[in-house]
């Protein structure tokens, strides 16, 4: 996997407060990378430093191998970003907005055609309407189209689903996945919505008060402990059977059942064993930790 973004010991002070504190992480080509943290954690500040919109105090940032301090022009041509409210002319059509961006991006060697980006974001057929008549979701998709025009390798999205209704959120999620899978973009999404990150991203970094708390694959966070809750007619008998098995381990005895540590295939074996021994099973559910559980644990519930 090749590294397209490397953030190394990044630090930023605001007055005497350290708002980004020695942050290091890297993003690989093709990642949908979640940048997660509660309000005020330092996500936007970090994104702005990556784009050199604000100055860092110390640390290094490399985009596609280019150091933003010494080779910003080569670095930044690989990145597009939607941070805060993107500049869209509401009195112009989507097509005209894209034309303006296209004119700016013509210095980039392989930029997309306007028609292509309209197709990708699903605004084909609506491109000659003034943007002020668009829903928030359509405006958001237009801003992605504008970000896509220069055909960047990386797209930074700051809270991309903020303010969208459920339909808009689903469409945005699908679009982001499509950009990664079909169009080979690396996407970095900042968010405080854990569920969103869990559903969209393959990797995540969690920050709190400017400090990095965790960098990990989503899968290894949520599948670390294969725990299953089993509600049965006879807990004592179930425990006795379980204690004889090597493939599964009793984790906890609960009110109406037991939590068992085991793989998925072993839980299937265990349930057959229970049934063979006349133990009725009323429920088996995966009791794995969600990203939300992990987040609450490491940020102290705030
Ligand atoms: N222009 C500024 N001047 C002073 N302090 C700032 C400025 N911008 C941000 N901060 C402070 O820096 C810290 C990090 O803010 P930042 O906006 O990066 O957090 P965030 O994780 O993006 O949060 P949110 O989700 O609320 O946008 C906060 O304490 C914030 O108050």
Automatic annotation (TrEMBL):
GO terms for molecular function: ATP binding; ATP hydrolysis activity. The keyword ATP-binding applies. The keyword Nucleotide-binding applies. Residues 5-234 form the ABC transporter domain. SMART domains: AAA. It comes from the Bacteria. SUPFAM superfamilies: P-loop containing nucleoside triphosphate hydrolases (SSF52540). Gene3D superfamilies: P-loop containing nucleotide triphosphate hydrolases. Keywords: ATP-binding, Nucleotide-binding, Transport. Belongs to the ABC transporter superfamily. This is ABC-2 type transport system ATP-binding protein. It comes from Romboutsia lituseburensis DSM 797.
